[in-house]
What does this fold into?
Amino acid sequence: MTISINWDNFSPISALIGGVLIGLSVVLLALFKGRIAGISGILGALMQFKNTPKDHYLWRILFILGLLLSSFLYSLILPLPKIQINNSVQSLVLAGLMVGLGTRMGSGCTSGHGICGLGRLSIRSMIATLSFMLAGFIGCYFFLHLL
It folds into this structure.
């Protein structure tokens, strides 16, 4: 997979706006529901029908729908960036399964640990986030430079 940035048209404003919106959603979920905005936990609880309290379904579904609809809403204002994936379906499925396994082993995902946990100054989340980042750096170096 090749990823490139068009530096002539690069603007950090969209990243800043996205970061503010993520931060706002995390704060609002914590204030109104007392919950952490970890995507793997939110989605995982939706999949455990018998163990999820009934009053948790609506906000979890709305949160996931917001994630899915955000690209569409963005496309109404600006064109979406072109995405080109050169990997096979099998490698993408394997990568998705590995991420899912990692979120289980790490007791959460990058959004739960990296955004919410670090915001609460959690040592456990600091270690988890550093582990995610280190594994990502090593994986990228290995696949981009050694294979």
Summary: The helical segments are 13-33, 39-47, 57-77, 89-105, 110-119, 123-146. The CA atoms of residues 136 and 142 lie 10 Å apart. The chain has a mean pLDDT of 84. The two ends are 13 Å apart (CA to CA).
